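To fix ideas at the outset, we first show an illustrative case, written as a sequence plus integers encoding its fold:
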Amino acid sequence: MADLSPIDLQKALSGMEYPAEKKALVDCARRNHADDKVVSSLDGLRQDHFDGPNEVQKAVFSG
């Protein structure tokens, strides 16, 4: 994702509590008024459960 930065992702998930399900990440990003590219990136993740923000970031930027 060339136009999505780790900072965009961090801002979108501000206040997120982990562990978390993918749906909770998407809901949090929407509550934080994240850009559509961030929301769709989260919604498109193959993994459904995340133990922390580093795991989310790895999933978004690795694949």
Observations:
- The longest strand covers residues 20-21.
- Strands lie at 20-21, 49-50.
- The CA atoms of residues 26 and 42 lie 6 Å apart.
- The mean pLDDT is 94.
